[in-house]
Amino acid sequence: MSEGKFPFSRRTFLATTALGAATVAMPSVLRAQGAGVKLGILHPVSGALSYSGTQGRLGATIAIDEINAAGGIKGLGKIDPVLGDAQSSAEGGTAEVEKMNSAGVAAIVGGYASAVCLAVSQAAARYDLPYVVDVGVADSIVTRGLKNTFRFGPGFGVIAKTALSNLAAINDAAGKPAKTVMIVHEDSLFGSGLAKLLNAQLPAQGFQILETIPHPTPTRDFNNVVLKIKAQNPDLVIPANYYNEYVLLARTMQQQKVKPKGIYSVLGGAASSYKFVKEFPEAAKYIMDCNHWFDPKNPKALALKKKVEDQGQFFTYEVYMNYSCVLLVADALARAGSADRAKVTEALASSTFKDHVMPYGPTKFVNGQNEGAAPANTQVLDGDIKVVLPVAFAQAKPVFPMPA
Amino acid sequence: MLSPVILIPAILNGLLTGAVYALVALGLTLIYGVLHIINFAHGALLSAALFAAFFAFKLLGLDPYLAAFLLAPAFFALGYGLQRFIIGPASRGDDRNMLLITLGLSVVIENVLLYAFRGDTRTIEVPYAFETIDLGFTFLPIPRVIGFGVVFVVALLLWAIMRFTDTGKAIRAVAKEKLGAQLAGIDVAHVYAMTFGLGSACVAVAACLLIPTYYVNPMVGDAFVLIAFTIVVLGGMGSVPGALIGGLVIGVVESLSGLFLGESLGQIGIFVIFIAVLLVRPTGLFGVKA
Within this chain, do residues A44 and A73 fall inside the same structural domain, yes or no? Predict the structure, then answer.
């Protein structure tokens, strides 16, 4: 292309870009000179998952700021975060691992989506780089025998199992009002996998599945899905989809005046979201969810919640899970006494970390999976989200069936 | 499953959804008809317009339907400016370059939105969002019924502009024979920009109709534009009535195939039509041979 009338010549463009790049690179060069330990913080902060990624980064950076404000990690100094953007894709995640490895990070925290976590764990394994998965629930993340990969939160299998037994318990306690079920799920790995598990196990719990309706992400309109629900009139609707679709579904159900005895979601995108409850209090009322949740009786969790809300952000699960994961790594680094990757991996594997904000049992990693991790059941009650199960962390008793 | 209890509401739904598709497609088909380019920035402009409608409501307290009267001229000016001062000059008279520039614009617009507003999904709460018309066998959401009506008004207006005004005549002349129009003294760069402006104004109106019941995030426009491309092909590239009828047809097809094949496979119906039209009637329903 000729340079003609175009206001930028190629030379000025190159010069300004180089200058810009140098300015951006400068702070990290300066920082690297001080003592401290580098920690990779990797999330999809652009692309389709950018909201979740940004929330995850928020949780991680709050934890780092708190640790640094308290003097950093004993013997190692302050944490120097190396922030990465996985661009909502597996390739994006892998590329960031390469960069973080050459930047000399001691470990990586994050990933968020299962597909990103799978790719990142493999890329990090090549460099024996310890990697802590923040959310990614696909079970295959920790079942491939990668020694560097640790997941602090619960996986798919545990979540589905807990969700089912809790559903049966809630239904039994209410005198078994719910017999028929319809499942509405998004059609990727997450929703379809869940629907398959539910289809296999719900009949054994005494539920009859009337229909399973998959839908793509994004879906622009839920009127047809709701028409089907209306026509078959199930006792329970089980949605498993991401935030936007969940909200559209719930709003359409409200619009078409469809009121089942209960809406019970498993990893529901919006069901345990403060944003949803605040913006659509009517549609959200009495919805139950089995999902990642913080320990509502832990003062540290409540302090974190206040801090996040004071910043004008919603306290979503990405925030507190990443917060906990960074604390877990910081604890391992302190015990390892060095940023040596093998020592950090060893320290993570033997971790009994207690100082997190999750409603988990004792931390114990078996093949990289924290055996203490578990989801919680929540319900939207009085315009707030309350934990209803497990009993040890519960703030309220479940209200089921939904009052008319 | 095949009972009329479901079938009739599903068709009505399809018509209501299809009307909004049609409006997005109207802008696209207009730009295609005159500039002979697929405007890849159309989706990003829709996202931008949804954000504009969102903030008009949140900050100024403007009801989305009133905001349309403000946003349509604003987006007309924006579209005019984009074509006149960015796309036109940067393409250096080669139509194929325009295509790439609109693609680039879409990346820029989407990422500016992402930078400014984060990936967060936002919704507004208007008092009539959950109001419905009770037909006895189904409920029709009022915002979508209003949208349906507005789309026809806009289409009629657009048709009148094209048919009766000098600008419309100039646009049609440029669409038919660019060089001839130029020789007759028509300022082609101005006509291009006017067309792009009209297309963008359509998008702004569509955004105002969508926002009461839909959500906005920086990527939201993409979901509509792929459908709009199909409608443009079905209706005939550059045809206003084609876009309108095409939109309604696609809406109903999407709704019914969603019903019979499931929501995941439902999209197939749309793209089968897309391929069939290209095979059997490449000019579309109302298109004319080039």
Answer: yes
Q: Inter-chain contact B215–A248, Cβ cutoff 8 Å?
A: yes
Cα separation, A320 vs A245, whole angstroms: 23
Range of the domain at A240: 157-291+376-393
Q: What is the pLDDT of residue A102?
A: 95
* The two structure tokens encoding residue B111: 């990422």
Which residue type occupies A61?
Answer: T
Does residue A11 fall inside a structural domain? no
Q: Contact at 8 Å (CB) between A152 and A124?
A: no
Tokens representing residue B48 in the block: 């931008």
Contact across the interface for A6 and B90, Cβ inside 8 Å? yes
Residue A346 dihedral angles phi and psi, to the nearest 5°: -65, -45
CATH number at residue A40: 3.40.50.2300
A/B interface, count of CB pairs below 8 Å: 98
Chain B CB contacts of A4 below 8 Å:
92
Which residue type is seen at B234?
L
Instruction: Compute the C-alpha angle A77/A78/A79, nearest 5°.
Output: 125
* Residue listed under structure tokens 């951006």: A24
- C-beta atoms of A257 and B138 within 8 A: no
Closest by Cβ to A219, choosing from B141, B213, B263: B263
Residue A21 domain-assigned (yes or no): no
Cα distance between residue A354 and residue A73, in whole Å: 17
Q: How far is B288 from chain A (nearest CA, A)?
A: 32
- Partner-chain residue, chosen from A214, A243, A254, that has the shortest CB–CB distance to B130: A254
Report chain A (404 residues): mean pLDDT per 10 consecutive residues. 41 46 42 69 87 93 96 91 92 95 95 92 95 92 94 91 92 93 87 88 92 86 90 93 87 89 88 87 91 95 96 94 96 93 96 95 94 95 92 93 86
CB B158 within 8 A of CB B198: yes
What are A194's two structure tokens? 């869940």
Domain boundaries, chain B: 27-222
What are the tokens at B202?
């359509």
Residue A52 CA to its chain's centroid (Å) = 7
Are B238 and B227 spatial neighbours (Cβ–Cβ below 8 Å)? no
Q: Which residue from B17, B118, B220 is facing A51, i.e. has the nearest CB?
A: B118
Find the closest chain A residue to B118 by CA distance: A51
Residue type, B96: R
Cβ–Cβ under 8 Å, residues B198 and B27: yes
If 0-12 CB within 10 Å is exposed, 13-18 middle and 19+ buried, where does residue A34 land? exposed
Among candidate residues A87, A48, A42, A118, the one with its CA nearest the CA of residue A269: A48
Distances (CA, A) of B13 to A186, B16, B242, B288: 21, 5, 20, 31
List residues bridging with A343 in a β-sheet: none
